[in-house]
Amino acid sequence: MKHTILPAILALAAATPVFAQSAGDWTLGLGFGYVSPKDDNGTLAGAAATVGDNTRPTITAEYFPWDNIGIELLAATPFKHSVSLAGAEVATVKHLPPTLSVVYHIPTAGKFTPFVGAGLNYTAFFSEKSPLGNLKLDDSVGLAVKAGVDFALSEKGALRTEVRWMDIDSDATLNGAAIGTAEIDPIVVGVSYVMKF
After folding, report:
1. 26-46 in b/e burial notation, b at 16+ Cβ within 10 A?
2. Nearest CA among 125, 127, 140, 130 for reference residue 175
3. How many CA atoms lie within 13 A of 174 on its CB side?
4. pLDDT category, 13, cuts 50, 70, 90?
5. End-to-end C-alpha distance for the chain, whole angstroms
């Protein structure tokens, strides 16, 4: 029995698809991102602010100028968040968070390929709505880091799970008067299908 199990395991390992990236490759990822702002979102108009969670479709495009090192752009459909002051919802706001990162995919020669990355996030806020008046949130530029893993389904396709952290702070005004800074700094959890070209 022992003599048949080991060869079977070795044969299975040899048949395992590898989702490797070489210089010149492109990948396209389609999935969903869950944005969860940190618990303490600062003080606005003298009250503790809370920014709600949201999930939206995402898309990533990554080009590999070198083996295993890619330059990735994250885009998404607009996220919509509620804004509460002292526990009472006072506004809703939408944002787009394009993020450009340099990503290192750690070669393993197996089904699982972990990766880490860092870059810059630009968050554009729009469609602010509040019964309190004319609310505006300034756009934000900040650091973004990520880590995750690809699970190879074939040589050209993989299931990706990842976690990102983004430094997002936005100065807020109400009817033209400054009311504080929203400190959002979310964790973003993503799941996607990634195709290699």
Report:
1. ebebebebbbebeeebbebee
2. 130
3. 14
4. very low
5. 42
124-160 in b/e form (b: 16+ CB < 10 A) is ebeebebeeeebbbeebebebebebbbbbeeeebbeb
Beta strands in the chain (DSSP E): 26-36, 43-44, 47-51, 54-66, 69-76, 79-85, 88-96, 99-105, 112-129, 135-137, 140-152, 157-166, 169-174, 177-183, 187-196
58 is in which domain, residue-wise? 2-196
Structure tokens at 14: 């040899």
Say which CATH number the domain at 10 has. Answer: 2.40.160.20
CA distances from 76 to 58, 91, 102, 180 (A): 4, 22, 18, 27
Distance (Å, whole) CA 134 – CA 90: 12
Alpha carbon 37 to its chain's center: 12
The Cα 148–Cα 88 span in angstroms is: 35
H or E element that contains 2: helix 2-15
* Token pair of 182 as six digits: 């929203």
> How many domains are contained in the chain?
1
Encode pLDDT of 157-183 as tens digits: 999 999 999 999 999 999 999 999 999
